[in-house]
C-alpha cells in the first residue's frame, strides 16, 4: 500500500468511526453551546466589552474544543486494544500521523465552523468583508494546533495522568499560534484587510511548516515498538 | 574530577558574591536593590545555556540512542528549570520595589514565563513515564519541539507587545557601561555557568549510577 | 531611592536556599545509591543455601552430627 493511500486509510477510518458513533462530535458541539451560554451570561449585555473580548473568547472556544478533540485522537486505539497494532505497523509510520492529522483537522474545522456560526447568530456579529481573511487565519491556526496536538496525543496516549499532561505540554508550545490567531482575528473583525496582519499570517505559516515537518520526522520515534 | 569542579564553582560563587557587594557600586537611580541583578541575570543566562544543551543532547540521543546523552538532557532540564524559576523569582523581587509591581506582561517576562512552563512540562513528562527507554525517546522529541518553538515564541510575544503599542515600563538595571558594574556581572555569570556544569555532571553521574543499580 | 536591603536579602537568600537544597538532595541520593550497590554486592557474595541441611555434611552443627537415629538423648 502506498504512503498516501495508507494515510488516507487512517483518516477515512477515523472519520467513519466518528460518523457512526459521533461521540467526539457530540461532546464538542455540546461543549461549544455551553461556552456560548456562559459568555452570553457574563458579557451579553455590554456590547462594547463583548466586541473587545470577542476574538479572545472565540479562540478560547476553538482551543478548548481542540484540546477535547485532539486528546481523544488515539482513544479508539487505546480502548480497543489496537495500540500494539499501531506499533507493529509496517513501513513509514508518519503516514499514520498524516492520516490522524487529516482526520483531526476535518473534525476541528467542522466544530469551529459551528462555533463561529453560533457566535455570529447569537452575538449579532457582522462578518462581511472579514470572512475570507478570517478563513485563512482559522485554517492556518487550526493546522498549527492539530499538527503538534496529534504528535503530543501519541506521546501521552499511554501515560499516567494523560488528560492532565496533554494540555500542560501542548498549550505553552502553542502560544505563538494563539497569539497570532487572536491578534489577527481582532484586527480582521475591526475591518482591517488581510495585508495589515501579514506578519501574523507569515508567523502562522512558518509555525505550521515547522510543526508539521518536525512531527513527520519524529512520529516514527514516538511509535517505536 | 567532579569534586575539583565543585571547589572551583564554590570559589567562583564566593568571588562573585564579594564583587557584587564589595566592588560593584551603589547604583545611581535604584540604590542597592540593583545588586539583585548580579544573581538574576546570570541565573537567566545560565538557564538559556541549559536549554540549548538540552536541545543538542536530545538530538544526539535520537540519532545515537546513547543513554549518556539522555542523562545530560535530563540533568540539563532539571537544572535549567531550577535556574529559570529562580531567575523569575529574583526578577520579581527586584521588580517590586523598582517598578512597583511583582509582575508585568512585557515581552521578556512573558517569554521567560512560557519557557519555564514548557520545560516544567518536560520534567513532568519524564516523571510520568516509567520505562526509561521510552521516557528518553519521548523527552528527546519534546526537547526538540520546544527548542524549535523558542524563536516562534520570541517573535510572537515581541510583536504582541510592541506593535501598535508603546514599549512598556522601563527595565531595571540600565547599563551605563562602566566596568565596575560589568566585571561583577561577568564573574557571577561565569560562576553560575560553572555551577550549571557542576550540577549537570553530578546529576548525570547519579542517573548513571541509579540505572546501574537497577540493572 | 531607599535601598530595600530586605529585597536584596530575599533574592540572595532564596537563591542560596534552593541551590543548597538541590545540592543536598544530590548528596543524599548518591549515598542511597551507594548503599544499595553495596547491599547488592554483598548479597551476590553470600553462599547459596540449597535446601535440606543434611545434604551438606559441613553445614551440620556438632549437636546434629552427634545425634544418630534411634539413639537416646543424653
List keywords for this structure.
heterotrimer, B: 215 residues, mainly alpha, globular, C: 74 residues, 2 helices
Report a brief summary of the structure.
The complex is a heterotrimer of chains A (225), B (215) and C (74). Chain A is mainly α and 225 residues long.
Helices, strands, pairings?
The complex is a heterotrimer of chains A (225), B (215) and C (74).
Chain A: H1 3-21, H2 23-43, H3 47-71, H4 75-79, H5 83-87, H6 94-123, H7 130-156, H8 162-173, H9 175-189, H10 198-222
Helix pairs in contact in A: 1-6, 2-3, 2-6, 3-6, 3-7, 3-9, 6-7, 6-10, 7-8, 7-9, 7-10, 9-10
Chain B: H1 2-23, H2 37-64, H3 67-99, H4 107-128, H5 132-162, H6 179-214
Helix pairs in contact in B: 1-6, 2-3, 2-5, 2-6, 3-4, 3-5, 3-6, 4-5
Chain C: H1 5-45, H2 62-66
Account of the protein in words:
The complex is a heterotrimer of chains A (225), B (215) and C (74). Chain A is 82% helix and 0% strand. By secondary structure, chain A is mostly helical. Chain A has one domain (3-222). In chain A, α2 packs parallel to α6, α3 (47-71) runs antiparallel to α9 and α6 packs antiparallel against α10. The radius of gyration of chain A is 18 Å and the shape is globular. The two termini of chain A are 21 Å apart. Chain B is mainly alpha-helical and 215 residues long. Chain B contains six helices and no strands. In chain B, α2 packs across α5. Chain B is globular, with a radius of gyration of 19 Å. The two termini of chain B are 26 Å apart. With 74 residues, chain C is mostly helical. Chain C has two helices and no strands. Chain C has helices at 5-45, 62-66. The longest helix of chain C has 41 residues, at 5-45. Chain C is rod-shaped, with a radius of gyration of 31 Å. The model of chain C has no long low-confidence stretch (mean pLDDT 75). Classes of the chains: A mainly alpha (225), B mainly alpha (215), C mainly alpha (74). The interface between A and B is medium-sized, with 29 and 27 residues.
Amino acid at each position: 500500500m502506498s504512503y498516501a493511500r495508507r494515510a488516507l486509510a487512517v483518516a477515512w477510518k477515523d472519520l467513519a468511526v466518528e460518523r457512526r458513533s459521533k461521540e467526539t462530535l457530540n461532546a464538542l458541539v455540546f461543549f461549544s453551546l455551553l461556552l456560548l451560554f456562559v459568555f452570553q451570561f457574563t458579557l451579553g449585555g455590554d456590547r462594547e466589552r463583548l466586541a473587545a473580548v470577542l476574538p479572545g473568547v472565540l479562540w478560547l472556544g476553538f482551543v478548548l474544543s481542540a484540546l477535547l478533540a485532539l486528546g481523544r485522537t488515539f482513544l479508539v486505539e487505546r480502548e480497543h486494544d489496537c495500540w500494539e497494532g499501531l506499533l507493529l505497523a509496517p513501513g513509514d509510520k508518519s503516514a499514520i500521523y498524516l492520516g490522524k492529522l487529516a482526520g483531526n483537522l476535518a473534525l476541528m474545522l467542522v466544530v469551529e465552523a459551528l462555533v463561529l456560526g453560533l457566535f455570529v447568530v447569537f452575538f449579532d456579529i457582522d462578518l462581511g468583508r472579514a470572512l475570507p481573511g478570517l478563513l485563512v487565519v482559522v485554517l492556518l491556526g487550526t493546522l498549527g494546533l492539530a499538527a503538534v496536538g496529534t504528535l503530543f496525543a501519541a506521546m501521552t496516549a499511554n501515560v499516567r495522568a494523560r488528560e492532565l499532561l496533554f494540555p500542560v505540554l501542548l498549550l505553552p508550545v502553542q502560544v505563538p499560534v494563539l497569539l497570532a490567531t487572536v491578534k489577527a482575528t481582532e484586527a480582521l473583525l475591526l475591518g482591517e484587510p488581510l495585508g495589515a496582519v501579514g506578519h501574523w499570517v507569515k508567523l502562522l505559516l512558518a509555525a505550521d511548516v515547522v510543526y508539521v515537518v518536525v512531527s513527520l520526522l519524529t512520529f516514527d520515534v514516538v511509535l517505536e515498538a | 574530577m567532579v569534586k575539583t569542579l565543585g571547589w572551583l564553582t564554590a570559589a567562583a560563587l564566593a568571588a562573585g558574591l564579594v564583587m557584587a557587594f564589595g566592588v560593584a557600586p551603589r547604583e545611581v537611580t535604584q540604590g542597592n536593590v540593583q545588586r539583585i541583578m548580579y544573581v538574576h541575570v546570570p541565573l537567566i543566562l545560565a538557564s538559556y545555556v541549559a536549554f540549548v544543551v538540552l536541545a543538542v543532547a536530545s538530538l544526539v540521543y535520537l540519532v545515537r540512542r546513547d543513554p549518556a546523552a539522555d542523562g545530560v538532557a535530563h540533568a540539563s532540564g532539571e537544572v535549567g528549570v531550577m535556574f529559570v524559576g529562580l531567575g523569575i523569582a529574583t526578577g520579581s523581587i527586584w521588580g517590586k520595589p523598582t517598578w512597583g509591581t511583582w509582575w508585568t506582561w512585557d515581552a521578556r517576562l512573558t517569554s521567560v514565563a512560557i519557557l519555564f512552563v514548557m520545560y516544567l512540562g518536560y520534567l513532568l513528562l519524564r516523571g510520568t513515564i516509567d520505562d526509561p527507554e521510552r521516557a528518553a525517546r519521548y523527552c528527546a522529541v519534546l526537547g526538540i519541539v520546544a527548542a524549535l518553538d523558542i524563536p516562534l515564541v520570541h517573535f510572537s510575544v515581541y510583536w504582541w507587545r510592541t506593535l501598535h503599542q508603546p514599549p512598556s515600563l522601563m527595565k531595571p538595571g540600565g547599563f551605563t557601561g562602566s566596568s565596575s558594574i560589568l566585571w561583577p556581572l561577568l564573574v557571577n555569570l561565569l560562576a553560575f555557568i560553572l555551577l550549571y556544569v557542576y550540577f549537570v555532571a553530578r546529576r548525570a553521574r547519579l542517573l548513571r549510577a541509579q540505572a546501574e543499580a537497577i540493572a | 531611592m531607599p535601598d530595600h536591603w530586605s529585597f536584596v536579602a530575599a533574592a540572595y537568600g532564596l537563591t542560596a536556599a534552593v541551590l543548597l537544597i538541590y545540592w543536598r538532595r544530590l548528596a543524599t541520593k548518591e549515598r542511597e545509591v551507594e548503599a544499595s550497590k553495596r547491599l547488592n554486592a554483598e548479597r551476590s557474595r553470600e553462599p547459596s543455601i540449597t535446601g535440606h541441611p543434611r545434604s551438606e555434611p559441613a553445614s551440620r552443627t556438632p549437636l546434629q552430627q552427634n545425634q544418630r537415629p534411634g539413639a537416646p538423648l543424653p
